[in-house]
Amino acid sequence: MIIIINRLNQVNLLTKILVLIIGLILFVTILLTAFYSYMEVEMTEEEIGEQALQTAQMVANIPSIREGFSQASPEETIQPIAEEMRKLTGAEFIVIGNTEGIRYSHPDQDKLGKNMVGGDNDAALIDGESYVSRAEGSLGPSLRGKTPVWNYEGDIVGVVSVGYMIKDINATILSNIKKLILPSVIVLFVGTIGGLLLTRNIRGQLMGFEPHKITSLYRERNAILSAIHEGMIAVNEDGVIQLMNQSAEKLLSGKQKAFFNQPISKVLPELPLSSLIKNGQVCRNKQVEVNDRHIIFNMVPIYNQNQVRGAVLSFRDKTELKEIIDTLGEVRSYSEELRAQTHEYTNRLYVLSGMLQLGNFEEAIELIQKETQTVETQNKIVYDQISDKTIQAILLGKIGKASELKINFLIDDYSSLSEMADYIEPTNLITILGNVIDNALDAVRETENGTVQFFSTDIGHDYIFEVADNGVGIGKKDIHRIFHRRFSTKDKTTRGYGLAMVKETIENLNGRIEVKSNLAEGTIFTIFIPKQQAKKTG
């Protein structure tokens, strides 16, 4: 059974369709022919039987026949009449006999006076019934109409049997059935031609691919679309969306089902796509802005028989490239900050060396004790209370930057933190804490005795970070806009992306960020990141 199924699977689709069509037509033709033949047999036998019975009844009611039974030689009167009626009606035989079955008429005169054959006269002679029977007589198997002959006194005096030979009936039936052969052959021929044309059309539509190949291509297409980081959208010649991948769904900030069968001009009104699709134009690396994101847009038309049948659009988010560059910039910044911190301590060592050479030992000891106390306090918190290496590096870098800018960067004594969960990437922490601390340092640059405070804890279900400054603060009208792209209270041509990246990164980690600020008093950013990654649904 398995071998048969495997062999059937190896047969191509067009052969299966053609065999199915021809087989179906052949089956229906044979079924209809069989049904018609059965009906033809039934109707022909019923018609001939009824004809035989009517002829028998008519003969039995002929006065000469009835009177002939009372004559001394009934066959002399009855035989000529019976033979004449046989020739007129086309019956094979008309046999008339008395109550004892003795023939008074028969197509073969030598059989007159002999007993009727068949044994089917009792119902007519005894019960007075008229009926059709099938029996084998002296001439062979026949279909007969039987009826009694009544005299004028109401007594049964004989029986009339009108018959048609079975072989003649079968010949008539076969002749009628043969008339179906030509229409059946024509139907089969037309069906075969139609099947061939249909399979050719299907072959063209499927481009010669078999179903298993189409299934494989469909799966591969879905896998490729899911793997492609770029947004992909396919539209028909009318600019209606037919296909899109998850990256495009994310870019459009919606769900795929909501965009299917929607005009692309409605979904992306920023792009003049309708005219481009109709003209079959190719677009390469065109920069546009969609949903406050910088997008690099490409479009290639789809042709079929030199006519535009649609287009494939690809979108690459330039904003993400900028975020990667900014993250790399943050890493480079930490390197520079650590280098600046090294430079700062080198200068202090030179000062310390000068003091010792001048003999100012007390001042040198005081400087050493002060630096030692500051370093020990910071190092104790950074190294002993905060275990995550990435956050240690971030804090050390920001301490060096704050020292270079003459800003007080304080780490709360009660700060503590274990290593971050594996699902939180180091780049996530660099983007979040790096930008928030940098914003705080920028906010206190022009502030006398500018101070930035950092606090962290992992008590509870979240990692909690708090960055506070005593800078100029944020106005109420701006506090809800600081996370919008390109919004900045400073130079708007080069800023406005840091906090937007912070919020997006936090939301991707299923966390949240809160802001409290008062003008001329300072700002506090509080960040909450879950310790466990939320399970994806859908």
From TrEMBL:
Topology of the protein relative to the lipid bilayer: Multi-pass membrane protein
Main location: membrane
EC number: 2.7.13.3
UniProt xrefs under Gene3D superfamilies: 1.10.287.130, Histidine kinase-like ATPase, C-terminal domain (3.30.565.10), PAS domain (3.30.450.20)
GO cellular component: plasma membrane
A Pfam cross-reference name: sCache_3_2
UniProt keyword annotations, A-Z: ATP-binding, Cell membrane, Kinase, Membrane, Nucleotide-binding, Phosphoprotein, Transferase, Transmembrane, Transmembrane helix, Two-component regulatory system
Record-annotated Histidine kinase domain positions: 340-533
Any one Gene Ontology molecular-function term assigned to this protein's record: ATP binding
Gene expressing this chain: citS_1
Signal peptide, first to last residue: none
Protein name in the entry: histidine kinase
GO biological process per UniProt: regulation of DNA-templated transcription
Cellular localisation: Cell membrane
The reaction(s) this protein catalyses: ATP + protein L-histidine = ADP + protein N-phospho-L-histidine
Top-level enzyme category: transferase
UniProt xrefs under InterPro entries: HATPase_C_sf (IPR036890), HATPase_dom (IPR003594), His_kinase_dom (IPR005467), PAS (IPR000014), PAS-like_dom_sf (IPR035965), PAS_fold (IPR013767), sCache_3 (IPR033463), Sensor-like_sf (IPR029151)
Transmembrane segment boundaries: 17-38
